[in-house]
Amino acid sequence: MKGVKLVMFDLSVSHDPSVVVTISWYHANNLINTTVNDNFILYENGSLGISEVNRELAGAYRCEIMSEVGDDNAEAMLTVQGHYYIILYK
């Protein structure tokens, strides 16, 4: 089965530019390392791209945003059915 070319988890973070913000993405509670896994692309704005989507990449995704002034997170579920995918945000 050939996967969907690209799925995006868009991220928009508003903060004072003087505050350092760290963004981490997790799949199935495992930290995503974009230097080791070619399926994941971390964009400069913090959005996550998933290329060549297949059933192995389905599951829970979590984004954690951390800074000296506070932390936040968001979760989404990626479901892959055949050649189609569904993204559910929590």
In percent, how helical is the residue content? under 10%
Find the CATH superfamily: Immunoglobulins
Instruction: Report low-confidence residues grouped into runs of 5 or more.
Output: none
Largest sheet: 5 strands, antiparallel
- The domain tally reads 1
Labels describing this entry:
single chain; 90 residues; Immunoglobulin-like; 3-stranded antiparallel β-sheet; 8 strands
Secondary structure blueprint with pairings:
Blueprint: E1 4-9, E2 21-27, E3 30-31, E4 40-42, E5 48-53, E6 59-67, E7 70-81, E8 84-89
Antiparallel strand pairs: 1-5, 2-3, 2-6, 4-5, 6-7, 7-8
Describe the protein's architecture and organization.
The protein has 90 residues and is mostly beta strands. It has strands spanning 4-9, 21-27, 30-31, 40-42, 48-53, 59-67, 70-81, 84-89. The chain has one domain: Immunoglobulins (Immunoglobulin-like, Sandwich). It has no helices and eight strands. Strand 6 (59-67) and strand 7 form a beta hairpin. The model has no long low-confidence stretch (mean pLDDT 86).
Brief overview:
By secondary structure, this protein is mainly beta. The chain has no helices and eight strands.
